[in-house]
Structure formats: C-alpha cells, structure tokens
Amino acid sequence: MHMTGHARDLLTPPPGMEPRILAEDRFTARLTPQREIIALATAPERPAATALAGARAGSQLRSAIAATLGDELARGTPLYLLLDDIAGASLVANWGAMQWFPDRALSPAEQAQIDARHASMEGVCMGFSPDSPVMIGGPEGRAPHHHRVAPLDATPDALAWHRLAAQQGPAARRARRIDVRFDEDRILADTHFQDSCPLPDGGRLAVHEYLLRVTVDRETLVIVSAVADPRILPFSYCPAATLSVDRLVGTSVASLRQTVLELFARTQGCTHLNDTMRSLAEVPQLAAALEQAMQEPATGISV
Fold this sequence. Notes:
Helix content is 28%, strand content 26%. By secondary structure, it is α+β, with helices and mostly antiparallel strands. It has one domain (2-103, 123-299). The strands form 2 sheets. Strands 4, 5, 6, 7 and 8 form a 5-stranded antiparallel sheet that branches.
C-alpha cells in the first residue's frame, strides 16, 4: 500500500486580499497488506518520524506517534493530524481497491476470512453492536451502502482545497476540512470528513461522510453546542451515533483527542464520527492563529 498525505493551515482574508499559508506538511509511506508501516518520509523532514517504521496502523501507531512525535501532538501541527489519520485511511483503502473488481469471486478461504473479520468486530462501534442489522442480518446485512459524489475540488472556490492528487486505478482518499471563524465571544468551527474512491467509469464513490458543527466559548474553549450531520454511512444503523453528540457540550475542545475515546467508547459511538470529533482538538491552534492575524493591521482580517 502506497500512501501520501498533504495538509495545510490557510488564513483566508476578506475578498480582494491574498490568502496566507500558515503551516503545511506532507508525508509518503509504504505499508504491508496488514497495514504495517515499511517506510515513512515527511516534508519538511522530521527525522524522528522514521521511528514509526514497523508500527501497525491502529491504536499501536497512535501510541507510537505520541511517543516519538509528542511535540507535533502538543502543537497540533498539520503533520500530526495526517499521521493520526493513517489508521483509518489505511483501513478504508481496501474498500476502495475492491470497487475495481466487482465480479471477482471469493474463494471459500477468503470468504471465511471476511466472515471471521466481521465476527471479530462485534462491539467495536454502534454499527457493529450485537443487536445491529450488520451482526444479525447475515452477509446481506453486511453489504455497505455507497453513494456517488462529485470531486471535492469541483468548486468555483479555488481556495476550498489544496491541489488534490489525481487518482487512477484502485485507490482511495480520506479528506478532511476544519474551518474556524469568530462570532463575538464564540468560536464557530465546522469539520467535513469523507472517504471516497475513484471508479473505472471516471466517477467517485463515497462510503463515509460527516459534517460536524460546534460552537466554542472563545475564552474558556468549552464547547457550547454540537450538531452532527451524517451524510453518507455504510449501514442503516450507523446514523444513530449522532444522537449523542451533544455529550460534547461542557467539554474543553482542546481535550477532545482523549475525551472522545472516553465518552464514545465502542458501541457508544461510531469510529468515523469519533475521528471527526477528535480532529476538532486542532480548533485552539487555528483560533490562536486567527487571533494573531487579527492583530496585524496589514492583513485586514476582521471578525
């Protein structure tokens, strides 16, 4: 598996003024089919990142990132957010590749492996809770729902996304956007998340998509309100996870990396919604950058 990641923090000024890139990071990596990192390189270079070779994507990798790149985590850099997403993105990559081989028949051994994998996922999240259609409905209930989507960068707003790499052949993409602005004494933040893949006919297919909006007290950084919009999810049982997202209210947005794992563990949440909520731990860094820009007369930034 070959992976590339690209993230930036972009300061968007009023119309007529030039945007400013505040931070930008990239990585390239090779992983085994079992999602173990063979090699990883970053740009700008962080020598410590090479120590992640040998780690397997998942909780083991996130622990390794915290141990070897703790400063990136503390500063909320774009690189940390990218590396944290390797776990989920590598898991979805196999789904993207399989869309190119719809007629391929599975051998009995392969089907047995798939059945065993599904059985082992019982209780991992709300979608795989013991009483969900996925677990009690047999193979038919495990067939994920897919939806065709337009390319994210097919928009007249040239600043909406950085340049997305062209994808041809079996591939997948995890895309994430976090926007922050001020409304008097509150921070308004929304994040959009999507897992998609290219199709042989040139279109794109998505299997996960969430939109999450939160309002945060500007002084205390405590979440005042939270609303999740489940756009695209693989199973009919999955959207139920959004019903408890208001449990974030009263929580410090800066603590979400850990708090989400405690509040929405296993069948109390959705792994993809959890990742979306956890990504909002970057809001304080983005808000601080915006605050600083507003103090610079030359930028012309206004609330």
